[in-house]
Amino acid sequence: MDWRKLNDENVRAGSAFARLLSADGALFSAREIESFAEECRLPRREAFLLLLSAALGMEEDRAFQSRYLAPAITPLEAPPWQENDYNRRIRFPEKRLNAWQLTRRRYAPYQLFPCGSMRLTEDGREIPRLGYFTVPFSYPAVLENGREWMTVTPNEIATMEKPLAEARGSVAVLGLGLGYFAFMAAQKDAVSAVTVVERSGDVIRLFQEHLLPQFPHRDKIRIVPGDAFDFLRGAMRGYDFAFVDLWHDVGDGLPLYLRCRQMETAGVPFAYWIEEDLLVFLRALMLEDAVSHQGKLDRFLPLDPADLTMDMLRAAAREIDPEEVKYTPALH
Fold first, then answer.
1. How far apart are CA 102 and CA 28, in angstroms?
2. pLDDT tens for residues 227-240?
3. pTM of the entire structure?
4. Who is most buried in 93, 160, 220, 231, counting CB within 10 A?
């Protein structure tokens, strides 16, 4: 397939997935899905996918359904996520401190949510990993002025699995969140110490008063109040691994990710939350520049843009000025 046509497909699919994820709660009730499945004599997942296609006005678009929708969406069982060690051990009281609130939220049955890193297929399709439960599922969250900012959902658990496997020795964590990465890293025998850098004093206070006392290996964890970029500039020597989680999503994350990539300390392995998603988003911006001829990012493309790989994107990220990227909601 011509890369321009594929890029149009990816943009259109990305916009469709964004519409599905922007819904407040589930688009269809469990009863509606079950009734439709019975009426059409279909498995519930297949009935659900058809209803989602209809909600998008794409019920006749078989290519979208088979190439994007079906590969993206997976039903999940709740117990494995509920039995995660962090979720089993940590209790979340309802607490407020200025703009911040510690609380629990929930996914309704059949509500879609991200659950894992974006996939770039061999033929160049950009496929998100989305999941849903068939029962209500609650998860811990921190809200800032009512906006969900930090969570421990299946997405956080799935997207931190690989960096947690790589963490060793003295670990620096940039961004506290709800302390999930610090908790899981400190559980490892291969990790001797975890230093967490967080700029919000209120977030630190909520964490230290209500969550950290429940951590079984809290003696390994040290909280450093301050700016992550100041820390990157001066204090990374002596660490064996660094994990960066400073963003909410790809929109605010890509410029921060590029900035961090250019500040890495030689000899220290760095891992980044949702790095694959950020690189796929960067790829989309590069291809949009190549189509429009109005940007500068297309200078990093190979002669045939279809040959652009994740390794090429990682290399380019070290050279791209963060000011060159802008958030384009239509893409993702």
1. 29
2. 999 999 987 888 99
3. 0.93
4. 160
